[in-house]
Amino acid sequence: MSLELALSQTIASSAPVAGVRIWWLSQSGFAVRFAGGPLVTVDPCLSDAVERLHGFKRLSLPAIAAEDLPADWLLCTHEHADHLDPDAVATIARQRPSCRFIGPSSCRAGFDAAGIAEQRRQFIAAGQTLDLGGFQVQAIKADHADLAPDALMLVLSGAGVRIAFTGDTAWNIGNFANLVEPRCDVIFACINGGFGNMSHLDAARAIQQTAPRLAIPCHFFTFSDQGTADPLGFLHACAALAPTTRTRLLSPGEALDVLPA
Prior knowledge:
25% strand, seven-stranded mixed beta sheet, Metallo-beta-lactamase, Chain A, alpha/beta
C-alpha cells in the first residue's frame, strides 16, 4: 500500500472522539476533521502546478494525491497557485461531487477554471463568519499587500476548538489583534520570509501577540524559491517570546489531535 493511499484511508475513516484531528498536507495545506463533523481542507497544494506555471521546482512531495483526498469542504485563503492549486482543485471537484468550495472573491476565476458550479461555491470576505454545519469559518484580513489584496486568514471553530490558518501574510498588529480574543487553541503560521510573508521571527512575534495554546509553522521547504524559512528558529524564538505557548513541527501527512481546553 502506498503512503498516499494509506493516508487517504486514514483521513477518510479517522475521526476524533472529541475535539479535532488535523493533518498537514505540506505548504499551507491542511485537512481538518472535527468530532462528529465533516472533513474540511484548507489550501491543499498537491500538484506541480506552481512549477508548471511559475517555474518554482517542487522539493517536497505532497502528502496525498488530490484524487484521494475525501474533502467535504475546500477553503482557500486566496487565489495564488500554492493555495488555490488549479490542478488539485479541479481534480477534487471532479472526484468529490458533494464537496463545496469557499474563498475570497479573487478565487472566482480559479473556481471557474476548475469547473465548479455556482451552487457548489461560496465567497467570503474579511469580517464575515459562516456557520457551515459542524463548524464555523471566520475570515480575517491578511496583509499580503498588492500580491493578493483580499487574502484572508481563516479561523475554523468546532467541537470546542478554535484553529487559525494565517495563509500568506505579513505580521500586521492590527490584523492579528482579531486572533487575541477569543484566544485560538492552535495557530498555523507561515514563516517563509519572502513574497511579503512573515519570517520565522515575525511569526514568533505574532504568536507572542496572540498567545495560542499551540503554534505550528508552515509554508516552508516546499519550493526551490520560497524565502529564508527557519522552522527551528521559529521554535526557539517562540520559546523566548511566548513561553506559555507550546510549539511543534509536523511532517507532511502527520496528524495532530487537539482537545478542547
